[in-house]
Amino acid sequence: MAASPELELPIDDTTDIALDRDCTTLSRHVLQQLQSFSPEAQDLSAIMNRIALAGKLIARRLSRAGLMEGVLGFTGDVNVQGESVKKMDVYANDVFISVFKQSGLVCRLASEEMEKPYYIPENCPIGRYTLLYDPIDGSSNTDTNLSLGSIFAIRQQEGSDLNGEADDLLSPGRKQIAAGYILYGPSTMLVYTIGKGVHSFTLDPSLGEFILTEENIKIPDHGSIYSVNEGNFWQWDESIREYIRYVHRTEGYTARYSGAMVSDIHRILLQGGVFLYPGTLPKPEGKLRLLYESAPLAYVLEQAGGRATTGHVDILDVVAKKLHQRTPLIIGSPKDVAKVESFIQNGH
């Protein structure tokens, strides 16, 4: 019997495209990138799914921060970096621990909020991975409802780590097997790379899933934005001050600085330009942590065609001497990073 005309469904390419987009979740995308369903691929997909869960929990907390007690403000404590700890820092750090504790996926968690790595012994025989993360980047923005971020990197455990000091993490950033960040803004976005390009996802609250937004993001070769805390101007080396004078007197440059590095670097990833956090004369080692901030973001930007350097050495080639090592950072479009380097190398 022929189907009645009113029951025939028209072919709608727009619907097909929309459905395919909605089905491309983060965990599915990782498996597609690896073109494999091997145990290693499934592990990496599951780890990314757990990172996404941490992002959802933190985003939910932030969205209600002004309505809940005990979310905003300082704890009164100081972390291993000597910085005042905000309540949101503690919560976000605990979220990552809780999310991975029962996962069977990672053996260690290393965070800028903890002096030593957090071990999960029951995971160690199988979970051969370490998650390094900055739970809240730009926490000074928390109490003023401005954008924040989380930064993460995944490394494979090397050796037995018998002394419990995670010495194998003191290796170049090129050994990262995945890295990315979560941006908490008007929408919550997750950007990641597993060494096969850079891809962005947006949290769809109606689905509770991070949905693919853009694949294979490429940073422009040059951009108009320079992002730096010019309040430190007189503490910088003269070569950096001379670069800032150059952009001040050169038409076409625009200053953008939010106080949350993830937010600034996300803008530069999409629009081009350069982010600088140089060392100062009192602290030439800089402020940013190599393993939790600089190296993961460098891995992302390099995968998008950008560059990241201390001004003398590519960030991904720097070998850490200690877990919480700091480093200067110049990161962004290749031509803009090269311009800053030219001022440093010429010793202006």
Describe the protein's topology.
Blueprint: H1 13-23, H2 26-34, H3 39-63, E1 74-78, E2 84-86, H4 87-101, E3 106-111, E4 118-119, E5 129-137, E6 148-156, E7 176-184, E8 188-193, E9 199-204, E10 209-214, E11 225-227, H5 238-249, E12 254-255, H6 261-271, E13 273-277, E14 288-289, H7 290-303, E15 307-309, E16 326-327, E17 329-332, H8 334-345
GO molecular function, one term: magnesium ion binding
GO cellular component, one term: cytosol
EC number: 3.1.3.11
Summarize the structure.
This protein has 348 residues and is α+β, with helices and mostly antiparallel strands.
Total count of strands:
17
**Rg on CA atoms, Å:** 21 Å
* Biggest sheet details: 8 strands, mixed
From the helix content, strand content and strand pairing, which structural class follows? alpha+beta
**Number of H- or I-type helical stretches:** 8
Which stretches are low in confidence, meaning pLDDT under 50 for 5 or more residues running?
A: 1-9, 71-76
pLDDT averaged residue by residue:
87
- Anisotropy-based shape: globular
Note the run of SSEs as H and E.
HHHEEHEEEEEEEEEHEHEEHEEEH
Gap between N and C termini? 85 Å
Q: Which percent band covers the strand fraction?
A: 15-25%
Q: Going across the major beta sheet, what is the strand order? A: 4-3-5-6-7-8-9-10
Measured as a percent range, the helix fraction is: 25-40%
Binding site for Mg(2+) 2: 134, 137, 293
Family: Belongs to the FBPase class 1 family.
Domain Fructose-1-6-bisphosphatase class 1 C-terminal: 219-344
Binding site for Mg(2+) 1: 112, 134, 136
